[in-house]
């Protein structure tokens, strides 16, 4: 079986490889990275093998959305870490430390600090109340149709922006690392994603994320250790050289241009922290474990891996200042301090090559590709669940769809999302998509998180309040990002931004909370009374897990 | 998604059990304290970044490259993770035992 899959895979890659040859000879003379391609083919055949195995185990809706709820806390912890640490984490944050020093570290603690809060306030309630999507929780005692529609709309918005940002990054990265044409790279990523999700559902997606997380942790650690060995493993030694060589000098140690004013710093902190707690593909991972115990363990493992890796990245970034920043090989035209070959995001890759040669570069390239695949698969699955479980099965069919019908829709939805991702990825090729990640976190923090947390904690929440607050948060976050510099000036070409900050959360999140609160308070309809009364049962279930969705046995 | 009547009966019995109130207040209190600690330290740090950025780059000792900012962030990474471990240990042990007991009692009465 595996042999047949490999054969099919080779057939799939063969035209891509020959295209790559053309692209390379036509543009930059990048040597075909055989190590990278070899290791990537190995990763893909392994994951396709797993997908084949998983497909045989994906029979029910519960298998498809949540792997039957049978994932252990340790596995889920790795998968969450794999879902959370995208290629932007590895490449973007290393580059951030390389160019701006400690600013990058501040960014990373904001990315990390959401995890303990998710554990203390949300993890067990998510597991006890949810089944397939986080809308199961927000609509638990509220109007199914309205609340689910809203949750699905904001989930799909987050998923689409995050997906496009990943796809554009993927295309550019693969073009550079593997010498594949941008469009072909997108088709490869999109096609593999569709195969994983459509056939293997959550089981395959989880394993892709687990394998990728292990590769990422191993690859990053190896590069870091090899780099640190050049400084005798002395942080002081490395830092003294980095500061004397970097154009920022001592300023590397101070907050700089990334956090130019208090509002930006606070808004970023808020957006990253609570955005994490509202990302649909992350929330969905809490429904894959057996019970609340395992859900808590997932966070413990996930946050441990994330914290460890962020510190690895800090060391990689500082080491790269000396190892990459002083090597003419990595600058265009060999001019130190000029343009980095392949752009600023390639620092981590250059570091891998400098300390471990082509073999390590190949490995880290394969890791980056695997990372993108794992993240887009998780996103596509969350998007598909919003379409098939929330919109189709619960809103359109009002719970009367059979499992077979729902599964069929979810598979169509996965394929549809894959196509949308490819098309949008191609459309946005030349654009700076950095704002899309900010937007995804901003919407997650402003539209998803307030309604979710209030539905679990506040008896007084009503459908009208949730709808008003959720949509207000969504619209406010989108508008503020559109009016910010990254869209209004950079994309739309206006002279002056209407909203002076990049991250909207400081404004849109409190707005969502406030509107939800006021509208709920003013709502005295009969439905509102019933919804408040229904909180009592929900509360007991949230606390004890009695009546929670059970794991199916395999 | 709403609960069935037999489930509702169990929920009602759980609610009446004083051990349930004890569980909720203990666990909620513990989670709240830990959250407040994390949020205070985290936003306190961001306040320093926002309003006193020069403190972040201060050296811990003369001639050392370990700064207040880097040392404190490393401390946050470790400390926050230790807090998650502390919570998981207590919740998966003590709190889950009470939970199991509460559910057992409420289900027993049905028969």
Automatic annotation (TrEMBL), chain B:
<protein>
    <recommendedName>
        <fullName>DUF485 domain-containing protein</fullName>
    </recommendedName>
</protein>
<dbReference type="Pfam" id="PF04341">
    <property type="entry name" value="DUF485"/>
</dbReference>
<keyword id="KW-1133">Transmembrane helix</keyword>
<dbReference type="InterPro" id="IPR052959">
    <property type="entry name" value="Inner_membrane_assoc"/>
</dbReference>
<keyword id="KW-0812">Transmembrane</keyword>
<keyword id="KW-0472">Membrane</keyword>
<feature type="transmembrane region" description="Helical">
    <location>
        <begin position="29"/>
        <end position="51"/>
    </location>
</feature>
<feature type="transmembrane region" description="Helical">
    <location>
        <begin position="63"/>
        <end position="88"/>
    </location>
</feature>
<dbReference type="InterPro" id="IPR007436">
    <property type="entry name" value="DUF485"/>
</dbReference>
